[in-house]
């Protein structure tokens, strides 16, 4: 591709040092497209090579004004195009001006890079990391650049303290249930264990599901945008129960491609998650109740594999959660929030 | 997402089946390529078809069978895969299938993967099965839920832990874990099954009941599985299994489920178990819905236990004591505990009890007596409480009582001892409490059994039998119907006649009983008693002449009772029957008594019979009896035969007169009369009188105005003439009379118009003439015959004779 | 075509029941017609006969109750045979063969079935059959004579028939005697 008749005299490319062994994850590079990108964690060194390859056929020699490499962490608000916010910017100069007559590689290393946020591609905002290599050229000659996006996962650790969500909700004289999720904070490989107890059933329930809702909030003040999106539905009951039935819940968060909860990222945006319990009756009326949960990403010693058998022994939903009896959480009695409605949707 | 509701347009079953095949094909293709994840995805798609619950249970079952049959391929494949990578692979896959957002495919796949996984990791069995049984709660749709759990039941069949509990490591999976699992699954399935009844519109309830019946076995399979566990012990059954099942049954309050499951328990578990759990079982019976036919359940249990007793010989007893006592105690409690239990159900429950007593305690009539007593008491209490005098015979309670009574009768009759029922001391209590109409049913049943066995009733059983029979003719309200009276009468013939004395005594008592009945009833009953007295009289005449004489005098009294009741025709017949019987006896005064019987018959004839038809009938009997009785001397006989002749001439209609005169002619001919020394008897053979009678008949016939009838009478006279001629009576007048009759007949024939009756007469006459002409009847041509007729066609003047009326006097 | 001939049941006056052996033989569905020549005397007897075959013909006997409406005589045609029925108490002298012949002539039948003596008797005279089937119940006669239970069965085939005579012996065994009969002059 040449603007000025000669085209680009050389290609530049970035090789990260452990790219063959480093884990890759699928990540949205645009709204539609996912690519397997290399995964980095906070504090990891980013090192590699920048290769400059001459176009052999017609180029004998390439002059440049210097070569540099940058690592950028950037938040981009789609509603405010062009206004990006770099929360991370590191530069390294690899070479001064010189003439290249043959291909050449330059090593680089950013030691212990602080990557304070998780990569994110949402509706109105994205947060991304990339390495950029630039071969600078003189006037009227465009720089030769190359970008390599990578993904950052934020790992957290929370003590395994049971902090169940338990609530009694209902619509007077019609439907009255108590739901219980074993925690309010889940790491992404975890399963939500819980149960729904039907205390009063005077409507004919057709089915019940749990939706995982992602709420993305960007900007502040007048330019405050909120986007809510269901990222997965999970049917937990088929048919209508009688009074007294207790329906178990086991929802593997892995089945949804959720990401950790992000709050006030660089004061630019937040991403929060909600469990929406929805009951649909035979007349297609929907009854629902949303509960926020915090998602986090857990650090594993050996991250190739999640611990085995977590799906059975320790988390059997025998109606009780682990230690539940010992630590009975206060019931958040939210009956006041009842909404009875003929409308197709009715929130508890 | 699943949840296809019933309003969705129904896909024809054949289409669904086809779609299943299609999905299955895709699934198998992936399996062949060892692409298990993809295969499971296709399996999930295939399983979506089971979401369609708008099919009838039958159709749904077909769909279910097709789908699960295809799933078996997956099972085989998984097992191979898990064997290669025991441990992790199974667990991962078990988790992965749970990512499926639709619950029904998810659970089917969990069952499939889970049960396949534990085949290579048996240590996980209990945890996985527990998980499956629990997670299946997510399907609350009755039909889908039942079938899902049925699939679970099928899949876990081979892997249910079935070892005795390990004392050293109580955590090791064992038979008790299986029991728990199955009980839990059973409880859930039953809940769904019961809930099915309450779906949809009220008016479809009967159809839903029918549909539920079709799939009841699916629920029952849980119990079958429990019973198939080799290491299930009686203790576990008593302490855990039965109590839990019964709790479910009682609490579900659904008549269909209760009936089916109670019967299933009885069927599925071994006899010894039942023996030890009668008390709790029967207690639960008492708590069942009022619509449940408790009797059938108790009956089925009794049947089981009875068979057990038969096969194991010996009195039945379980840990609660002997079966009968436990049963009767439990039934008492059921009855006591169920306030408002309909009387028929209370009574109905006595039936299995009596069945039990009859089968297992044959030699102890006290048990039967006890039941009969209780029954009588219960009814009495009920009547008192409700201020009633009796239970209407058409009511269910009465039907139960009848069934209750019939049982021992049937059993005894089958043993060839139908009278044993009469020996039960409390039989009368139970019988007495019934309404008369109900009693009749039982009485009929007893008598029929006695007759069937051709048994007879002796003096020992007589009183009890009489109590039973009384209801047949002693109706408090209506006129008893003839069938009941027939039966009462037949009872008299069942009395044992091996001892004349006892026989006579019983007959007298019965006679007294019957004589107190209404007139209409008496006419049915007394002739039998009368015949019985006559029979006794005749049978005893040589060896017990005293009894013989007394019997006939009793017979005589009896007819008088009837005669007083204005039953003249029957009285005449019986008097004559008596006379005919006495002639064979030779007790002191027998001939006088015989004569007395005759005289009485004539008196009644004279005084009571007015109807001309009845007169004819009575006169026939008088005459024919006179012809039979051979014990009279000339004087007595003459008196009686003149009575006959006189009566004949006094009949109203000429034709009747003529015919009666013809009959009476026989008393002059073949009557046997004793010689004065009473040593021999000889026929009268009074030719003149006979001929006179015939002449008189012909003159009477002459007066008959109806041509055809007159012609018929002529032929009858000619027949009579032929009779006497061929019997050796040679008399010119007779021949002349015969000829004249022939002549007249021919004349009349010429006059009468041809019709069927006339032709018949002509044919008769023709045959008679041939018969009269020669001893060797030959087939003759019409021509010759008419020529012969011409020959005798010489009309003679009829001898103008004086009427022979009263010439005997 | 099987025709059952019975007479003089006298139930319940003189006999409680049809003997068990006979009841075992006379089951429904085998016999087409039943002819009873008198003295059923009860509804029970009639019901018994009706249970054997749908077509039951009865004539009145001397002991049949006056309220019943049986005729004194009856002619039934079965196959090519005409069968007359009469009880016989109206015939004088009772049970006289000659008198019965007169009855047969007046009825113009091939076979005359009668009763009244309670004694089974079969005669063939001048090509006609006279049958007294005897008492089905073995009821005693009006003068108290004991009788053997008996009945007869006619197997009619066009103008011919075979008569089977059944008697119950004192040993409670059923004795069967066949007799062939063919109508002398079939309808020309």
Automatic annotation (TrEMBL), chain A:
Pfam families per UniProt: Vps26
Top-level taxon of origin: Eukaryota
InterPro entries tied to this protein: Arrestin-like_C, Ig_E-set, Vps26-related
Family: Belongs to the VPS26 family.
Protein name: Oidioi.mRNA.OKI2018_I69.XSR.g13561.t1.cds
TrEMBL record, chain B:
Protein name per its UniProtKB record: Vacuolar protein sorting-associated protein 35
Entry function: Plays a role in vesicular protein sorting.
Residue stretches of biased makeup (Acidic residues): 793-809
Family label: Belongs to the VPS35 family.
Cellular localization per UniProt: Membrane
Source taxonomy: Eukaryota, Metazoa, Chordata, Tunicata, Appendicularia
Keyword S-adenosyl-L-methionine tagged: no
Alphabetized UniProt keyword annotations: Coiled coil, Membrane, Protein transport, Transport
PANTHER family per record: VACUOLAR PROTEIN SORTING-ASSOCIATED PROTEIN 35, VACUOLAR SORTING PROTEIN 35
InterPro entries (UniProt xref): Vps35, Vps35_C
Region (Disordered): 771-809
Topology of the protein relative to the lipid bilayer: Peripheral membrane protein
Pfam families the UniProt entry points to: Vps35
Coiled-coil segments on the chain, per record: 691-751
From TrEMBL, chain C:
Keywords assigned by UniProt, alphabetized: Protein transport, Transport
Domain Calcineurin-like phosphoesterase: 1-157
Claim: Lipid metabolism is one of the keywords in the record: no
Pfam family, one: Metallophos_2
UniProt keyword annotation of Protein transport present: yes
Coiled-coil region(s): none
UniProt xrefs under InterPro entries: Calcineurin-like_PHP_lpxH, Metallo-depent_PP-like, Phosphodiesterase_MJ0936/Vps29
Described function: Component of the commander complex that is essential for endosomal recycling of transmembrane cargos; the commander complex is composed of the Csubcomplex and the retriever subcomplex. Component of the retriever complex, which is a heterotrimeric complex related to retromer cargo-selective complex (CSC) and essential for retromer-independent retrieval and recycling of numerous cargos. Component of the retromer cargo-selective complex (CSC).
Sequence similarity: Belongs to the VPS29 family.
Official protein name in the record: Vacuolar protein sorting-associated protein 29
Annotated organism of origin: Oikopleura dioica
